[in-house]
Amino acid sequence: NAGVMQNPRHLVRRRGQEARLRCSPMKGHSHVYWYRQLPEEGLKFMVYLQKENIIDESGMPKERFSAEFPKEGPSILRIQQVVRGDSAAYFCASSPMAGGANVLTFGAGSRLTVL
Amino acid sequence: AQSVTQPDIHITVSEGASLELRCNYSYGATPYLFWYVQSPGQGLQLLLKYFSGDTLVQGIKGFEAEFKRSQSSFNLRKPSVHWSDAAEYFCAVGGDTGTASKLTFGTGTRLQVTL
After folding, report:
1. Which residues of B9-33 are buried (b: 16+ CB within 10 A; e: fewer)?
2. Closest CA to B82 of B59, B63, B110
3. In this complex, do B44 and A106 lie within 8 Å of one another by their Cβ atoms?
4. Closest CA to A86 of A48, A47, A63, A112
5. Among A74, B5, B73, B94, which one is most buried in terms of CB atoms within 10 A?
6. Residue to test with chain A: of B103, B104, B109, B110, most A Cβ within 10 A
7. Adjacent-strand bridge partners of A1
8. What is the pLDDT of residues A64-100, one digit of tens each?
């Protein structure tokens, strides 16, 4: 019973390159959330997706960031033309249902370093 | 807008001593409250949650937390700390906003345990 799987665990990119982070939710979970943790800060909500739908992207930066959760395969968080300020840990979480009375299971995170 | 305040950035306790980590929240309706723990380089693990009912909730690893509506607090406690409890602790609040499980996290409290 694997948990939330994220890869890569560590990613190094140069400024201007693209970063792709992948997240496979727990078995039976169809709701995926992405959070970003900047150094010395708490987690900040970015986006909430269900299969093939973006439900809430109110935390996503307006440019360069996108997310998808296709019918088949993992959820992808894509950052185009990365800048140094994108260096952070990106956490994915999943849950089996919608609603606030719901527990999110987090992955181990993907740590992006932009040189 | 919902928010979480963890006033203590860093706490040091001796092994065997009691622990209390403070958490204050702001939320317009009945909140769902969580405590997560993060070990260095790892993801977040759920310690305990409050949805409704008994305001004193028990979690894993001997932790408990008490929901006090009048004080908008959800402090985490442990009667006797072990060296393995050294980690970062995050309080989070969510609710039935329709966009499920969109948690707001505090900035965290880093716990150091001295032997």
Report:
1. eebebeeeeebebbbbbebeeebbb
2. B63
3. yes
4. A112
5. B94
6. B103
7. none
8. 999 999 999 999 999 999 999 999 999 999 988 776 6
